[in-house]
Amino acid sequence: MSAPLPDAGAKAPAPRASGGRKVVPVAAAAETEQSLYEVRRKIYPRAVRGGFARWRWALVFATQIVFYGVPWLTWGGRQAVLFDLQARQFHIFGLVLWPQDFIYLAILLVISAFSLFLFTAVAGRLWCGYACPQTVYTEIFLWVERRIEGDRAARMKLDASKGARKVLLKGAKHAVWVAIALWTGFTFVGYFTPIRELARSSLALSYGPWETFWVLFYGFATYGNAGWMREQVCKYMCPYARFQSAMFDRDTLVITYDPARGEPRGGRSRSADPRALGLGDCVDCGICVQVCPTGIDIRNGLQYECIGCAACIDGCDQVMEKMGYPKGLIRYSTENALEKGWGGGAILRQVLRPRVLVYSAVLAAIVAATGAALWARSPIKMDVIRDRGSLAREVDDRHIENVYRLQIMNTEEQAHRFTLSVEGSAHLGHVELLTDAREPFFEIAPLATREVAVRVQAVPHDREGSQPITFELVTSDRGGREIHVHEKSRFIVPSGTLHPGRSDR
């Protein structure tokens, strides 16, 4: 609260503090009293209807159908999406990823970050207002609250009352909240433990300690964040609310109040002429504040607490429609559009500005490169290690022999048959591969790893020391298309074993 300005000749009072409050001098001529500690004021968001509310609920349904439904899908006799941490296998429909493919998770995070930058640069906090889990579950919990306790006025009246009815309604609401939260925790764990096995364990009350902890932890987080903390998460816990302004510019579409049209605000009858009364279109009804899930007044300008849900737009449009005024007193617009009076066409033309084009180009390039990498990704992986327990040695007929251990991984859900060969440099002459297998090929089961010991013999004729060799693994049983895997290693020619006159035939 600002104190009145003192007389010009009066001495400015000294700062003082009392009862947790601090008085801060402003411009050496006035005082501002500000509380150091703010007690939370409970917010009762009012229900609202409109185009943006329909979009928001469409996103709620879409995200929850995906989240709750995907774990129950099957693919090839198994759960379609399963992150099996125990087996270190991550199944995403027909794709199987292993810990060696961790790079794809990093790329996914990069894609998510650039998508966030792009959407924010274009239209502000679209993610927060429509698809963020905090927003989605808060909407669900608020819907339950309205169905049981009533809309804003009824909830405020109920909270101020006492008696059995209040206990009954509050108990019913929290019981439904807890059920939704536990089902959410169960579904979350179902992405890491086969959900049908998890369901059978639920019926038998035989959860393991790992499943029990995460079902309860995720359920408690959902219940606490969406049921109790709500806007506090967006205002104080989420870092995105703090750094979002760095992504905005004067051409970013944000929710704005048009003061040139709305001010001066004031109440009036529906039949009154606001111009004759010297008033703007804002009737000062407070609907925009009542429907806001974070409790801000958008008429005071854009604030970091605004999550971009556009509930205030729907609420204000309803009032404008009832008063017979044009809609859009609160609308999506930009700073430049408000200052220069641009229409919708001029605003949209500013969307394709350099910043947005750069974000779009980088995002498209990353997505294309990732798609190409996944398409060309070989399902067979091979590691070659020289056997440390067996040194390079000279064997019969003056051949030099090295022993290797090959670890071959089949990352697909079908068995493969392989043939193995080796090539060496010209200094090694003819290189021969020897294995203990009776047949020229061997098989690897689906999603399995096989270790193969091989001996490589050569008759070097003009160079000692380390020489390059390449192992090649070939399979032709995958739809008629051959898969070639190459892995380089080194062949050691010990000193004193070179025979210059020896032919390499």
Description:
The protein has 505 residues and is α+β, with helices and mostly antiparallel strands. Among the domains are: 39 residues, no CATH class; 148 residues, no CATH class; 114 residues, Immunoglobulins (Immunoglobulin-like, Sandwich), CATH 2.60.40.10. Helix content is 39%, strand content 22%. The strands form six sheets. Strands 11, 12, 13, 15 and 17 form a five-stranded antiparallel beta sheet that branches. A four-stranded antiparallel beta sheet has the order 16-14-18-19, with no helix packed on it. A three-stranded antiparallel beta sheet has the order 1-2-3, with no helix packed on it. Helix 4 crosses helix 8. The relative contact order is 0.09.
Number of helices: 16
Coarse shape? elongated
Mean pLDDT: 86
* Largest sheet features: 5 strands, antiparallel
Helix content, binned percent = 25-40%
Radius of gyration: 35 Å
Provide the structure class.
alpha+beta
How many beta-strand runs?
19
Distance between the termini: 99 Å
What is the multimeric organization of the chains shown? single chain
* Unreliable parts: 1-30
Q: Determine the strand fraction and express it as a percent band.
A: 15-25%
